[in-house]
Here is the input.
Amino acid sequence: MAGRERAAQRRVSLHGKHILVTAGPTHEPIDPVRVIANRSSGRQGFAIAAAAAEAGARVTLVAGPVALETPAGVERIDIETAEQMANAVFAALPADAAILVAAVADWRVEPSTTKLKKEAGPPQLKFVRTRDILAEVGASPQRPRLLVGFAAETERVLEQAIAKRRTKGADWIVANDVSGDVMGGHRNRVHLVTGDGVEDWPETSKQEVAQHLVARVAQALG
Here is the structure.
């Protein structure tokens, strides 16, 4: 990112604003030892929370199971399941902006109270949809002034992100292709989908993606 952009980011101010961020995966129990999970490291969401706090915001970070240190000046709420994340998000409202980065599991099962044994054969799991946190916040009376969702896709990335912005009631969608090692890595290449169109951002570190996004959030909130 150019030096001029970095200098502008240092002047970004979110003082007096409350920014809500979600990060990481959720774990949906199958039995006492197994879960439905994904490869999200939480790094992008934590970087966004850190950048918002550095800009002076009061930041609430709702984090799934990740091995990351809490950024300075950030209030962290640890959760495990999608249901817990949804409850924590609504408990944290109102907020000026919500940036929902977490890779929330789409499905859960009714967990067994005892460990499933392979001798019993393949388990018969009944899948149930988890709560759609982005859509719920988008339709809520407590909807933040700016609602930002993330779309991690492996194909038709922009097409699906544009549709997601419309169907979920979000202002912006940050879209990225996760067919490689993005979910476990330190770099990211994203597209910002807004009501005005699509911005293609260059590949860079997740920290610089976070700083650029937070600068845009500050601009939008005024």
Summary: The two ends are 23 Å apart (CA to CA). Confidence is low (pLDDT under 50) at residues 1-9. Residues 206-221 form the longest helix (16 residues). The first strand starts at residue 18 and ends at 23.
